[in-house]
């Protein structure tokens, strides 16, 4: 029996990187997964042939996207146990040079889109928790939720927002047996970071910063999300799970 046997999950940002690895791992652990990503992504092909994963193309910032995503999960699988909000974007600009459009894009995806999908999913999660005794929300933040770097004002603000949103969800939903937690990746080699980390001089710096002396891989974060999504996390809520290979141990 897998750790998610009989569970139904939504995973966003599932066409690549952490989301792709998580959708696949959740399915391997017994879940049925609605894998969501933008229509212009590889979502329609990347999970082809996996009978436990249903692809769904949607931009989470779309006006009707939350309703369509949750309806798709309920229509295909009949219920919802786990919402894993992983979709995210980044961007780099000094504050004095950052446009409103840059700020709004990063925060629109990373916080607003997440909030709206959580809000839409809560009734289905409550119904499942009444039936099965538990349901889960897992969100992807970043170590930049509590750290920073040059040019990352929008990104850091958005990821701090993920933390605040998740802790409040945990407080409000605990009495319904719904837990809400967030994972904070460190330096992960993924589609979003590959351009930089493929440069040896950049990769070596970040590998040296981590106590484990390597970059993280998407599967490392997927395993953290799996823990928080599993029954083993019944008494964990409002928690910030840092998965960074020891990157933030030193100042």
Tell me about this structure.
This protein has 251 residues and is α/β, with parallel strands linked by helices. It has one domain: Rossmann fold. Helix content is 43%, strand content 15%. It is built from 8 helices and 7 strands, in the order βαβαβαβαβαβαααβ. The chain has helices at 17-28, 43-46, 65-77, 100-132, 153-173, 194-197, 200-209, 218-229; strands at 8-12, 32-37, 53-57, 82-85, 135-140, 178-185, 240-243. A 7-stranded parallel beta sheet has the order 3-2-1-4-5-6-7, sandwiched between helices. Helix 4 links the parallel strand 4 (82-85) and strand 5 (135-140). Helix 1 packs across helix 8, helix 3 (65-77) runs parallel beside helix 4 and helix 4 (100-132) runs parallel beside helix 5. The longest helix has 33 residues, at 100-132. It is globular, with a radius of gyration of 17 Å. The mean pLDDT is 97.
Integer tally of domains: 1
Unreliable stretches (pLDDT < 50, length at least 5) are none
Q: What's the number of helices?
A: 8
Number of E-state strands: 7
Gyration radius, in Å = 17 Å
Helix content: 40-55%
**Roughly what fraction of the amino acids lie in strands?**
15-25%
**Under CATH, the topology is which?**
Rossmann fold
The mean pLDDT is 97
Largest beta sheet: strand ordering: 3-2-1-4-5-6-7
SSE topology:
Elements (H helix, E strand, L loop, with lengths): L7 E5 L4 H12 L3 E6 L5 H4 L6 E5 L7 H13 L4 E4 L14 H33 L2 E6 L12 H21 L4 E8 L8 H4 L2 H10 L8 H12 L10 E4 L8
Parallel strand pairs: 1-2, 1-4, 2-3, 4-5, 5-6, 6-7
């Amino acid at each position: 029996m897998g750790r998610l046997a009989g569970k139904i999950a939504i995973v966003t940002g599932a066409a690549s990187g952490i989301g792709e690895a998580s959708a696949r791992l959740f399915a391997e652990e017994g879940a049925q997964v609605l894998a969501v990503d933008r229509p212009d992504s590889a979502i329609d092909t990347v999970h082809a042939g996996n009978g436990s994963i249903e692809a769904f193309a949607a931009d989470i910032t779309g006006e009707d996207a939350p309703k369509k995503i949750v309806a798709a999960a309920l229509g295909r699988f009949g219920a919802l146990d786990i919402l894993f909000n992983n979709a995210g974007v980044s961007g780099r600009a000094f504050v004095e040079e950052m446009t409103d459009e840059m700020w709004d894009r990063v925060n629109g995806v990373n916080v607003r889109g997440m909030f709206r999908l959580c809000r839409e999913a809560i009734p289905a999660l409550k119904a499942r928790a009444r039936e099965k005794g538990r349901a889960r929300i897992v969100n992807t933040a970043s170590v930049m939720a509590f750290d920073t770097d040059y040019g990352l004002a929008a990104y850091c603000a958005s990821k701090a927002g993920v933390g605040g949103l998740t802790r409040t969800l945990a407080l409000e939903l605990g009495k319904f047996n719904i837990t809400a937690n967030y994972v904070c990746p460190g330096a992960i080699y993924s589609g979003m970071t590959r351009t930089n980390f493929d440069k040896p001089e950049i990769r070596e710096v970040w590998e040296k910063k981590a106590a484990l002396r390597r970059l993280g891989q998407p599967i490392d974060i997927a395993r953290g999300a799996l823990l928080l999504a599993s029954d083993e996390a019944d008494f964990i809520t409002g928690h910030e799970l840092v998965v960074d290979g020891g990157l933030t141990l030193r100042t």
